[in-house]
């Protein structure tokens, strides 16, 4: 699951005051009414809707809000919306919404408000990303497998390292906070030009190569869109410092898997920490499983136990916005895909 990559995580967007990314705002305010939880009931989310003051009811012509609790089912959701044009607000369950990109493109001009969980899961994901980076810098993949004492004195410190974070959403901001005690030299790469507080510099995505020059650690925390597919490839990996570390906690397809394998096997890249892969799930026997200094975790940077209460809080906040002033959190801009 990912996460809000290129926009501020907890900035609230009013339904009638303009959409993120410069999108055209809806012509009218969101019309409140009954809320349906789809495609299946969810007791935790139902409680959150009630805490927000909402009225729960089965899907009907009177439904005005939908909380979608499945990570997939884009076609089913599209069919629901086609059959219920009065729905004015849709809440999606994860920060990354690439699984619903087709629906978002179809409805981009229909005036509905779409919200996601972007920013809600930033803390556990950033924590996981930092764990992977530190483990790789201290050569833990090899140390853990060792069966004899090897006093080779291999390992590096994160203190003062040149770090690049690709993305500027909740994960990136939380990473900057976690990295502060290490006194790193941090560069943020984002779609927008707006500077990110806490980073030494902020560069637009058009200057990604420049940002990567000589970097020791790269965290990938961006949204997967058509424009960002395989954002990190051979040319980008070649610009990193020899022995650099790459950590991806966003989407596997942001990184060219073949290029990553080549860089690991040649020793040019010092290690990779992957909570996401391309393909995913990663098949048994895939070369990444045996690649040197590669840690793979099965998309568990934020587990259900961690995310359930965080998503519930997001739902409660947005139900209150839906019923009152339209002060939604995590609003999606369908035109850019997150």
UniProtKB/TrEMBL annotation:
It comes from Agromyces neolithicus. It comes from the Bacteria. InterPro entries: D-isomer_2-hydroxyacid_DH, D-isomer_DH_CS, D-isomer_DH_NAD-bd, NAD(P)-bd_dom_sf. Residues 133-301 form the D-isomer specific 2-hydroxyacid dehydrogenase NAD-binding domain. Residues 16-30 have a biased composition (Low complexity). The keyword Ribosomal protein does not apply. The keyword Ligase does not apply. Keywords: NAD, Oxidoreductase. Gene3D superfamilies: NAD(P)-binding Rossmann-like Domain (3.40.50.720). Residues 1-33 are annotated as: Disordered. This is D-isomer specific 2-hydroxyacid dehydrogenase family protein.
